[in-house]
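During the second year of the project, the team shifted from modelling isolated chains to modelling whole assemblies. The rationale, set out in the original proposal, was that interfaces cannot be judged from single-chain predictions alone. As a representative example for this report, we include one of the complexes processed in the last quarter. Its constituent sequences, exactly as entered into the pipeline, are reproduced here:
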Amino acid sequence: MSRKTTAKESEERPKHWVSYPRFLWRSLALATDGSWAFYAWMTGLTAIALVGANAWAGQVSSGMGVTGMSDHVSWGLYIANFTFAVGLAAGGVMMVIPAYLYHDDEMHDVVIVGELLAIAALIVSLGFVVADLGRPDRFWHLLPGIGRFNWPISMLTWDVVVLNGYLLLNLHICGYLLYMRFLGRKPNPKWYVPFVFLSVIWAISVHTVTAFLYSGLGGRPFWNSALLAPRFLASAFVTGPAFIVLALQVVRRTTSFRVPEGPIQTLLKIMRVTVLVNLFMAGAEVFTEFYTGSSHVAAARYLYIGLHGKTALVPWIWTGLAFNVFAAIVLHTPKLVAKRPLLNLALVLVFSGVWIEKGMGLIIPGFVPSTMHELVEYYPTLTEWKVTAGLWAVGMMVFTIALKVALPIFGGEVGAGERSWKRDDAPDSDPEPAPAE
Amino acid sequence: MSALNRRRLLKGAGATLGALAFAKAIEPVFEFTANLSGDEFLQKHYRELSPDDLRTVLARLEAETKEKYGADVTIRDIRPQDGVQFGYALNLSTCIGCRRCAEACHVENNHDRKTHQSYIRVFEMQQGSFDMEQGDATYDHPVPQPGRYYMPVQCQQCDNPPCTKVCPVEATWKEKDGIVVVDYNWCIGCRYCEAACPYHARRFNWEAPEISAEEINPNQSYLSNRIRPQGVVEKCTFCLHRTRTGALPACLEACPTGARVFGNLLDPDSEIRWVLENKRVFVLKEELGARPRFFYFFDV
Amino acid sequence: MHASIPSSLPRPPSASSRALEAPLVAVRGAKRTRRILAVSCVTFAAWSLVGCPQSEDHGAWRAELFTERENEPRIEPTFDETIRTPDRLRGIAAPAPDGGVVRVACFTCHGILQVELSTRAPTPLQPDVLGPHVGLLFDHGTLDCAHCHDPADPSHLRTADARSLPTTEALELCSQCHGLQWTDFQHGAHGGMRGHWDLNAGPRERNHCVDCHDPHRPAFGQYRPMPPPRDRFVPTPPHRANHGGSDAHASDAEHDADEAHDDRPEETP
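Output from the structure prediction step:
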């Protein structure tokens, strides 16, 4: 991350080599201080993460045979979660666009939550890629320069580039803004606004590339659809806002950080569109598959109604769809939206619904039936569930800690100057200057 | 003040405990790395190895096979011949589905005994249909059955291979003579190639292969039938350790009916050329544009 | 990939006065940002194109197909292709006094015995008729013995154009009717083989017709296949998986298999 400053700035300001370590030290303190509930939450997550780490270690040692995958279904729960996590990371951009492109000031106040979500979700998705490798010890073969990076031919290398690039972009933007906030200085737009704009495009490309990973495979007709990338984006823009709305409410309840209602309403409005677009595109796929009735329908048939008596995914996909429809109804009924607990339930359900639909519901039918039309079903093993839970726990830890550090600094409670900055001292009405100048 | 100190102490204790628990949790990884030599970890890509490097690597692999499997084997590096492009054709009229090809592959290529692995799957198809959904690779009754025909499927050694282009680390590529190979010591095991292959030709080593010393075929090569490590992808190589020295592939020799025809596509007098020019041949899933080098034909 | 603002997105709800003036202020900055982004996009695209390796054409051999042969004299390969001569062409297996099997040349009996071959053979052949050939099943189209065996000299074969052939030359006789198979055989597209595809690297041995086809009953029989794959999770074929319940179909198949197994123990072609 480039947190450089111009020579002029460093002359009149305290030296960064003094203040930056102080910033990190203070961040560490912020990250580890908290209520008993916070410690309980983090301890719980740590426990789950450790169980996951142990399961993964066992998998590395005794081989992927401990998973439920086979030569017929060669990707499973890990890649399903990877896809979903990338979507979640891209979903954070739905805060950035209103905040920076449309200058929604209230959104601007909380946009850091979306950026931090992207960081946490990216770490999770990269974790799932590593968990899925048969030889994680050879990870260095992927490093450009040292290994042999098959770029630009392999879509997986594109994915590695965009995921890490997006991670770095968000780390830079968040890190720079927080550090400036910490110093009590106005962030210089030159050092972050171009990156913010780049991150908007990047967020779209991250999920597009992930979709291309699958849609580029001619041998898998279930994935080989131009609609896959648009569907990915639509569902990402359902899950991202859903998660953020829920997170914002938690932040509002558990911290002194001011969460205005405006951003929540904006995100709900976005969801109103995306949840329908997502359902519409799923419907369009279903029509094309079933009405054509070619042999390519086998995978969709397996997913929605079962194939030759094999029905493992059928209850799941209908549950997922029901959750999506339920959320769509709630979001489009103002009376129901006003009922916060019901709305929150709808958000949780639509989040899980998309997790089913674009996780297992997307990956597994790509393999069932296999390319030679053999029928082998896939059931994740306990090891896979443990690793999956562990990685999500790590993601939640990262997100919690990031918020724990960012919110007090961003809210102006903590800074380089006095220990106890009053929030009122912070230029609340103008947290970041407009990109002009 | 003491409250603050106590809190710091607790934090430190918590962090230490967490770190210890983490070290304990990932202990099995160290069992794995203990079996992994530094040379193996740092080994370069096959195509970057100098002749000297390669000699060292082959010697190391032979020693490892001796150590892990108790067998004395010779692992060679056999390069493609100039003026040779391999092609394969299979007569669906004469194939009787006896699976001798699959068995020969199993033995020749030192496959895992437990899963009875083979690069060839023979599908029992319904007469009057080419619907692979009606196919069955697990039949276990006398063959040929009336009303059925049999279609062995293995790597099609495509001219436009969908599997090699997806590999993020160039661990699999198409050689000069048309054979698609895998560097088992470079593959990271992401299985993207397995997802990309339209012919179910690739296999993953979900566990380290099990095979007894006396059953090991000692005539091995780096890119083909040496015993594969755990966690990497493997595939049919047209038995390149045999075919690059002029011999026929094991599956062809095993075929009792002569349904299999193999040879050099560049030789106008070769058997494979005669079949391509005189029989009505077709390839599987031609619409995918992978351009297989494995052809099928019917006599009648 | 360019930096234009997606127009499909909903407008934000905030209608404060600042929101109205902010875009005006932002114009200059946005322009610069767009320029930066455009430059980086172009650089990125150029990088992708340059980085793209020239894909090799592995299909160049296809242009060689169906082209006129040049009339170059064919260089004789170093090694030969040989055709096996199966033992059964040199006589019949007969029980030996010690309980084993002994191969008896045709001439041993037929040199002294006069056998009438003009009638159509009964199935199976009766002991009083054929002595050592007892139990021989005959099912070769509408042929009878004399179509292939020389009635004048039963230790020889007789071709369609009435030439007498030693039994070891059976290939010539077979090919007179089975032209299609003979053509395929000549081009290596019929019958098993072992050895080398490259006759400059080593020899090749071909199966004889009689290795796989019993001349008296040439149809290829049924065989027990080698064991099926034992994948981690065994695939279910549709006809067994149909309608969820697989028992009825599976047991049928097993039953069939057992029956056939009893009738015909494993043969080795």
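Residues 317 and 357 of chain A are 6 Å apart (CA to CA). The two ends of chain A are 23 Å apart (CA to CA).
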